[in-house]
Amino acid sequence: MFMIRNVSKLLFGETSKQDLLQIDSGQLYLIRPRSPKGYSECIFKESTAFIRRTSTPHHYQLVIQRVFEEGEETLQEESEDEDAEMNDRVFLLDESLHFRSVFRDGQAVFAWNDLLGDPDDTFEFVCDTATQPGQVNTFEIVAMQCQFERKYKRSYENATDADLEQFSFSTPTIPPIVRPTPPKAAQEQPPTSHNKKDVSLPKESLHTPRIVRTEAIEQERDEAKHQRDLPILTKELVELHLYDTDSGTFILQDSELEAYVFDNGGWKYTLEVANPGKGVWVTQVIVPDISPVFNFDYLSFIFNAYQDEHAPFSWLLRFRDMPSLERFQEGLMRGLWEHLNETSWLKAKSDDRDYIVEAFQDITMSDVSEDEEVGFEAENVDEEENPDDVSFDETTQFPDDGTHEENSQLAVGTQSDRSVFKMDIETGKIVDEWKVHDDIPIINYVPENKFAQLTNEQTFIGHSKNAIFRVDPRISGNKMVDSELKQYLSKNEFSAAATTEKGYIAVASNKGDIRLFDRLGINAKSHLPALGDPIVGIDVSADGRWILATCRTYLLLVDAKQETGKNAGKLGFEKGFGKDAKPKPRRLALSPSHVAQFQHETKMPLSFTIAKFNTGLNAEETSVVASTGPFIITWDLKKVLKGSKEPYSIRRYSEEVKADNFRFGSDKSVIVALPQQVDMVAKGSFKKATRQSIATPVKQLRSRSSIVNSPY
Fold first, then answer.
1. Which residues touch 91 (CB under 8 Å, ≥6 apart)?
2. CA 113, 114, 115, 121 torsion-angle sign
3. For tag attachment on the chain, is the N or C end more exposed, with fewer CB atoms within 10 Å?
C-alpha cells in the first residue's frame, strides 16, 4: 500500500505548485446520524477535491471546491460579498480527522470527521464513477504523508510504512447514506376527528357514504400483506374515497385508515392504504402510471391503482390537515423520484426538490365558467383518394418540422446515422446526402430558428446523445460546423430539441432535464432539473417564454421568463435562473379518473405523442395538442394558467392516432394522421371529457366532398 514513493516525491518536490493532487469530480455530503433535520445533506452537488500546501511548513489542507453547474454562472457574482465557505470547504490535514476511504456500490468514498459537529458527524466526498482506483489510492497515501509531516514537523521521505500506518483509519466504518424515517410523532398519531375548520371536498364529490367494491378490490384487500417490517418513508391518517364511473363522483369507503409509503429496496416503493386491525384496502407499486395529483385546497391526493389486468381504479385520499398532506407528499414524491432516477432524493438540491414537488400539485381547483361552443367541422383526406397509397405509422411527421428552401425540400434521416438526406418533396426522390461527422451521429435535427423552414435558410441544428451542433450543407466535406459544437463528456442522453424565433435552443433528455442555450458552442445558460421521466419531445413558443416537454404520461409546461431578481424580464435562454428563482413547472396531465376511463376503453397504457403549440407568424400560442391511443387532447393555455381543474377537451377516433398538429397560423383546426387517412378537424368539435365522450368515437367522414384541397 505504501509503495508510491516516487510519485509522492514528484508531488511534494514541486514547491511552486500549490496543489499537490486533486480528484476532479465528486459530491460532498455531511452525514449527521443524530440530527432531526435529516441523516444526509448534500453540500456540493459537483465539486473537486484538492490536497493543498499552506504557507506554514509541513502543514497541508484538504480543500473541497464547488464546481458551478450550467446556468449557475450568476450565482458566483451574487455571492461575492458572502463567506468564501459557500464555495470552498477547507480542512487542515491532521490525524484528528481520521481521513479514510472505502469503495461503496462501485464508487470510491473519502470520509473524515466533522470536528465542529456532533461526535458521529462526518463529511463524505463521493468520487465520480470515472475516478480510477489508482487515483484514490494515491490521494489517500499523500494525505497520510501530509498528516505525518504535520505531526512530526519533518519530511515524510524517511518515514517507514509502519510510521504511515498510524494514519490509516478504518474505524469507525463509514456509515451508509440511508433513508430517514419520519419523526416519531408522524408515525404514532392517534386517530382523531377532523378539525371543523378543514376545507371540505366539493359537494359533487361526496355522496352519502356507502361501500363501492368489486371482486378485484376485495381480492386485493384480502390477499395483500401488510409490510410493517419494511422501512417507512411516511405514514398518515386518511379518509379513502373511490371514483364511481357511473355517478362520476368519489365515494367514501372508510374514514379511519392509514396511508404508508414503504421502501422495498432496490429503488422500489409501495403505496399502501390499510386498517391495521382489519386488513389492506389498496396496495400499489409507485410508478408514473399512478398519475399522482395533490390538491391542497381540498387536502387531497388522487391516484390510480392497478389490479392484475383489470382497468385501474381511481382513489382519493383526504388528509386531516395541511402538515400531514405535506409530509405524505414529500414521502411519495421521494419514492417516485428515487425509483425513476435510482439515486437518493437527499442528493438533489433543495430548490431542485421544490421544483419537482411543485410539478405534481394542482395550482388551484377553481373552474372556469366559460365553455367553448361545441360544433363539428371536418376536412378529410381519404385513403381511396391518396394517389401514393400511403399508410401512416408512428414515424409520421408533418412537413413543417424539417423543410427547407421555402418548403420545396425536406431533410430526412434515420436515428444514429452520420448523414442527413435531402429529398425533393415534389418528386419524392433523394437528391443529396449530407455527411455530418465521421464519429458523431445525428439522431435529431430542428430548424435554425422556429420559422426558418419558411425561408431560404440552409443551416439547421442537430444533436446526438451528448452533443449539439450546427449543420451547414454548403461547406465541403463533413457538414458539421466545428466552431459551433458543444459536446459533453458525460452521458446526457439528449432526446429532443426545439428553437425559438430568435434561434434560442432548448434541448431535452431521456433523463428528464432541460438545457437552455442562447447560442451554440457554449454551456447552457440554464439547466432545469429532471422530474425523472424521459422527455420524448419538446416545443417552445416563438418568443421563448414557454417550454413544452412531452413525457409518456404527462406534459410539462415551463415559464422561462424570470419575474424577480436582477435578471427580471430576461428569459432562461439569456440569463441563468438564480439559486432560489427556478421557474414553477406546470404539469399538464389528465385527471386520474379520466386516465382510468381511457384505459378501461383501450386496455392500453397512456402514451402521449409529441405535444405541440399552435404556431404561426405573429401568432400567439393559445393551445396545446397531443394524442394517446385513439384520443386527441387539446389544452387551453388560458385555462391552464388560470388553474382550471380540467383545462382540456378531447376527441375520440375508432383508430389509433399516429400524429397530430395544429394547422400553421391557426389554433382553430387540428390536422390528424390516422392509419389510413388524414383529417383536419375544427377545434370546436372537441368535447369536455365525460364518460360519454370518452366511450364514443366520432364518425369519420368518407365523402369526396370533404377532401382537403388546400395544402397544410
1. 61, 62, 63, 97, 112, 123
2. negative
3. N
The DSSP symbol for 135 reads H
User: Chain-centre distance of CA 644, in angstroms?
Assistant: 24
The Cα 462–Cα 443 span in angstroms is 8
Distance CA 140, CA 168 (A): 9
**CA-closest candidate to residue 512, choices 526, 498, 492:** 492
Query: Strands 678-682 and 232-244, how do they pair?
Result: unpaired
Q: What is the DSSP letter of 4?
A: -
- The arithmetic mean of pLDDT across residues 574-591, rounded, is 83
CA dist., res. 209 & res. 547, Å (int) = 43
Report residue 533 CA to chain centroid gap. Answer: 5
134's CB contacts (< 8 A; 6+ apart) are: none
Query: pLDDT tens digits for 383-397?
Result: 433 334 333 333 333
Phi–psi pair at 607, nearest 5 degrees: -155, 100
Q: In Å, what is the CA distance from 62 to each residue of 30, 35, 59?
A: 15, 25, 10
The residue that leads in pLDDT, 644 or 621, is: 621
Q: What stretch(es) of the chain map to CATH 2.30.29.30?
A: 5-165, 184-347
The rounded Cα 520 to chain-centroid distance in angstroms is 23
Under the banding of pLDDT at 50, 70 and 90, the label for residue 624 is: very high
In this prediction, residue 353 has a pLDDT band, given cuts at 50, 70 and 90, of: confident
pLDDT tens readout for residues 494-507: 999 999 999 999 99
Phi, psi of 13, rounded to the nearest 5 degrees: -75, -25
Domain 184-347 has CATH 2.30.29.30: yes
For the chain, the first-to-last Cα distance in angstroms comes to 72
Q: How far is CA 367 from CA 364, 371, 590, in A?
A: 9, 10, 15
3-state secondary structure 520-540: CCCCCCEEECCCCCCCCEEEE
CA distances (Å), origin 624, targets 121, 528, 536, 538, 548: 51, 21, 16, 12, 9
Q: What are phi and psi of 214, to 5 degrees?
A: -125, 170
Q: What is the spatial distance between Cα 597 and Cα 291, in angstroms, rounded to a whole number?
A: 13
pLDDT bucket at 112, cuts 50 / 70 / 90: very high
CATH class label, 5-165: mainly beta
What local confidence, expressed as pLDDT, does residue 70 receive? 56
Q: Where are the beta strands (DSSP E) in 335-479?
A: 378-381, 403-404, 409-412, 419-424, 429-435, 444-447, 460-463, 467-471
Residue from 710, 581, 518, 557 nearest 635 by CA: 557
> Rounded to an integer, what is the distance from CA 281 to the centroid of its chain?
31
